[in-house]
Amino acid sequence: MVIQATGLTKDYVINLKGKGLKGMAKSLFKSEKKTVHAVQDVNLQMDEGELVGYIGPNGAGKSTTIKMLSGILAPTAGSVRVCGLDPQKRRIQNAMNIGAVFGQKTQLWWDLPVRETFELLRRMYNIPADRYKKNVDEFMDFLDMGPFADQAVRQLSLGQRMRAEIAASLLHDPKVLFLDEPTIGLDVNVKVAVREFVKKINKERGVTILLTTHDLQDIEELAKRIVVINHGQVGFDGSQAELARKYADGKHSVSFTLQQEVSDILLPEGLAAHCTIQREGRNVKVMHDSSVSSSDLIVALVQRYRLTDIDIEGPQIEDVVMEVYRE
Amino acid sequence: MAVKRLWFYIKLYPYFVSRSIQSRMSYKSDFFLGVGASALMQGLGYVFIWAVFQGIPEMNGWSFYQMVFVYGMAAISLGLNEFLFAGSWNVGKHVRDGSFDRLLLRPMGTLFSILAEDVALHGIGSVLFGLAVCIVALCRLHLALSLGKILFWIVAMACGSLIFFSVNIVCATVSFWVTDISSSMVMVQNVSEFTKYPIAIYDRKLQVFLTYVIPFAFSSYYPAGFLLGMESSPIYWIGPILAAAAAVTVAALFWRYGTGKYQSAGG
Ligand SMILES: Nc1ncnc2c1ncn2[C@@H]1O[C@H](COP(=O)(O)OP(=O)(O)OP(=O)(O)O)[C@@H](O)[C@H]1O
Ligand SMILES: [Mg+2]
Q1: Which one of A50, B119, B160, B263 is at 20 to 30 Å from A9 when CA atoms are compared?
Q2: pTM higher than 0.80 for the full model?
Q3: Residue bearing the CA closest to ligand 1, atom 26
Q4: Which numbered atom of ligand 1 lies nearest the CA of B264?
Q5: Which own/partner contact pairs does A192-199 have at CB distance under 8 Å and 24+ positions apart?
Q6: Which domains does chain A have, with CATH numbers?
């Protein structure tokens, strides 16, 4: 078990400042406090080499969880082990084992060129010369960083910087990688490159990866296993297929056009109970849950009617996730 | 293990600092202005004691040039602190904007990161000024320091700057609870003005305060008393070392406690 979080909980205590000068003066003496339950009793286990998509709506507690796993924040309650270490109490050893990218913030040195930043990291992590060279060459090449490697970080575009961040987080061959919105603000091509890179790192190096993103295509392409967090609590933990099965009821559909006008569309009894029919003239959409297979449905339909333009739709991940987030 | 760790930091420090200077050098005019301003400030202070004490041959047992020596020692310690430990001024900002996250993700002590991140070269101006003033004072007092005393002087200056640094860190640590602390840090800086003069000239309460509460007096008054051969009580020579050790310990423990309370920033 590479990551093991049990009953992980984080409350933020916020001092509420009153409005205006009077409020400020008041808050000097008696501050009103508000507690935000950002993460509540989260259990998360990850095996070596797993890639988990950690998703949830804004403010769900994703970044907070990652900060606790990476040793930035102390949990209010519960326990965390990353590679067997308590990330906060053994912060320095833990830092050697993990890499982290926070899409919203930079980990790099603002005024230094990318190459020098890497050199600094080499010294900081004591990276052996051969590993360092191999990694830098590979990352520079794969993420196409040559064109901007000598520019200061502050002079990079968002997409260039993100590539540099991801490369920087992996130079020291970490066992675990935390990616908090690594594809935020990237153009289509860079996004694809980053996804490929993450996939490759996970596959070839066996790096255990926890990924948060609001781009569901990232999830679809990268994460077999999905953990959904909402209001600080884990609402789902399982494979993509299971997620679809659980939340996609009524999200499958078969659409077609009738070749002749018919008054009513009738289905065999076993199927009818699981289907709803939408109709607009000759265009028909039959929605069904996952207990019905689309092929059975189509066979039943062609036996009775003459159809064209048959279109089968599975659940869209957006719909599924929206369903989960609504809970 | 601990030795290995120390060696790691010693090797890393110059590299980090040279990077920080390199990036700072992109703002060259800023640097020269800083050195100029710092030397000017110290110079003005000197003119001030010269003007005030000109008519007074001595004060509470301290002659003019003995006071000048204290002034010089304070300038050296403060300058060293300014030069080497400038990073402590960035803590508040790191905590407020959440960039402290970054320091916590590195496999290095956070205090080391803070220190290695920033040096203020203009502090050297103050050190050189202090040194010059001290040498002038020694000549006028017709004092030649023994090798032992010169070594003690070096140690005392290191201790003095560590005391300033520790107090700064204690103040900076408060930023883990309170959002804006720079004003309190400036206030404590102002207290350090008192160390430019022998505390013997102050009220008893202030003397106790500068010795036991905020032990700034160990950066100038006490070691100067010993170096000038005015006082022989051990507090004058062992005091600076003990005070520095105590201050660093308190600061490091408080820092560790404070970083555990870090709440980061959203994102
Ligand atoms: N440093 C902080 N201090 C106080 N409250 C915070 C802090 N960071 C986050 N919160 C609160 O904790 C909750 C969880 O925030 P978190 O940043 O973990 O969400 P998230 O899932 O990463 O959201 P997003 O998708 O928007 O990045 C939110 O309600 C937020 O307001
Ligand atoms: Mg977030």
Answers
A1: A50
A2: yes
A3: A58
A4: 1
A5: A193/A142, A193/A143, A193/A144, A193/A163, A194/A143, A194/A162, A194/A163, A194/A166, A195/A221, A195/A222, A196/A142, A197/A142, A197/A143, A197/A166, A198/A51, A198/A166, A198/A222
A6: 3-245 (3.40.50.300), 250-322 (3.30.70)
